[in-house]
Write a structure and sequence with these properties.
Layout lengths: L1 H12 L9 E9 L2 E9 H8 L11 H6 L1 H9 L2 E5 L2 E2 L1 E12 L2 E11 L6 E6 L10 E8 L2 E7 L5 E5 L5 H18 L1 H11 L4 E4 L2 E4 L3 H27 L7 H20 L7 H17 L9 H33 L4 H27 L7
Parallel strand pairs: 1-8
Antiparallel strand pairs: 1-2, 2-6, 3-4, 3-7, 5-6, 7-10, 8-9, 11-12
Helix pairs in contact: 1-11, 5-10, 6-8, 6-10, 6-11, 7-9, 7-10, 8-9, 8-11
């Protein structure tokens, strides 16, 4: 069965994605002929790249980080090239500090890049960690006077150019819409939660047994209620978290998201709320919103840029969800009458979801790595 094959493939490929992908936070302030910068890079990522844990005890101390300051500076600056038009800017790290973000401790590099001329167009070529983590993202905040713009570096988009005199809000919005789409597609815990809710959507529970649902319009309406409830809920907490109104530890959020996927799969095997699954979607969507917010919370954007980034990212997430529904729902609707759908697809798919999510929960809750990748 095509649906079951997809779920099995996910089981074989997703354990390596159980943890939040790494991010770094790059702030650049353009000052006529030079750029003042701050770059926050996770200690765990620097440890993977150049080795910080000198005694190998699994704990990175301030002394170990301090002993590696020169290596950190060389490593970081070798992976970021700033240029004004065609002139490469000469960068130098001024000092290094330590700061805590929602997902751990970061090294904070303050640096200055001298460009030798008034900056009219700034080019940023970002190469950090892509050779180690293909899903690494660099979140950029660029300021010039009172104006702030944002961008995201990824393995596919390593180069950004900014016109200092005239910057497009549409380019910012388009970038975050794109990132929102890919965040939902590559955020397998969110995808599996959504699929777990959609698996029984083409069935109806009667006298203790699953039966094929009726016309497509009723099935579609049921799915619309589920997806809308999930959307409203995660949009609410995404906004609250990104605006720093509510703050929860990253480890707690990621563990609870994994637990919600487990419970969604169990709900298919032991159905208790077959007619009000939208309520389940809403309740757990509140938790998933905090997971989406992890991409934006630590960037520290001003409220005008944060609002644009927040709305655009959320639009991208919804477009990504709709694309999943558009592919998944017609296929399952066509298969709903077959004898194998409730037995193999629903049961087998739900068991697959549960197993994957249990691995995630164990890794996140107990800070373990069950798989080497």
């Amino acid at each position: 069965m095509p649906v079951l094959m997809i779920m099995v493939l996910l089981l074989l490929t997703v354990p390596a994605w159980a943890h939040k992908p790494s991010d770094s936070y790059l702030s650049l302030a353009v000052q006529n002929d030079h750029v003042e910068g701050q770059w926050d890079i996770a200690l765990r990522d620097l440890d993977s790249a150049i080795g910080l844990d000198g005694d190998g005890n699994g704990q990175i101390t301030w002394g170990e980080v301090r002993n590696k300051h020169k290596e950190i500076s060389v490593y970081a600056l070798s992976r970021l090239t700033l240029s004004a038009d065609t002139e490469t800017c000469s960068a130098e790290v001024l000092d290094q500090l330590i700061d805590d973000h929602t997902d751990g401790t970061y090294s904070v590099l303050h640096f200055r890049a001298d460009c030798g001329q008034a900056i009219q167009r700034l080019h940023a070529d970002y190469q950090l960690l892509f050779d180690i983590d293909a899903q690494h993202k660099g979140l950029l905040r660029l300021t010039q006077g009172e104006h702030t713009s944002t961008a995201i570096f990824s393995r596919e988009t390593r180069l950004h150019a900014f016109s200092i005199a005239e910057q497009s809000r549409w380019d910012e919005s388009r970038q975050f819409i794109h990132e929102g789409i890919w965040h939902i597609w590559l955020g397998f815990d969110h995808v599996l939660f959504l699929l777990a809710l959609l698996l029984p959507a083409v069935l109806a529970r009667k006298e203790g047994h699953w039966q094929a649902a009726g016309d497509f319009s009723s099935v579609l309406w049921n799915v619309v209620r589920i997806v809308t409830a999930f959307t409203v809920a995660h949009s609410l907490t995404l906004s609250l978290a990104a605006l720093d109104v509510v703050h929860l530890p990253s480890r707690l959020v990621e563990s609870t998201i994994a637990a919600s996927v487990v419970l969604a799969g169990l709900g298919n095997l032991y159905p208790m709320m077959t007619s009000r699954r939208w309520m389940v979607a809403f309740g757990f969507g509140l938790i998933h919103g905090f997971g989406f917010a992890a991409v934006l919370t630590d960037l520290g954007l001003p409220h005008d840029s944060l609002l644009l980034s927040l709305v655009s990212f959320n639009v991208g997430v919804e477009l990504g969800q709709l694309a999943i529904v558009a592919v998944f729902l017609p296929l399952t609707y066509l298969l709903r009458h077959t004898w194998s759908y409730p037995r193999l697809v629903l049961t087998g798919g739900s068991l697959t979801v549960i197993v994957i999510a249990l691995v995630w929960f164990t890794e996140r809750a107990f800070d373990l790595r069950l798989f080497p990748l």
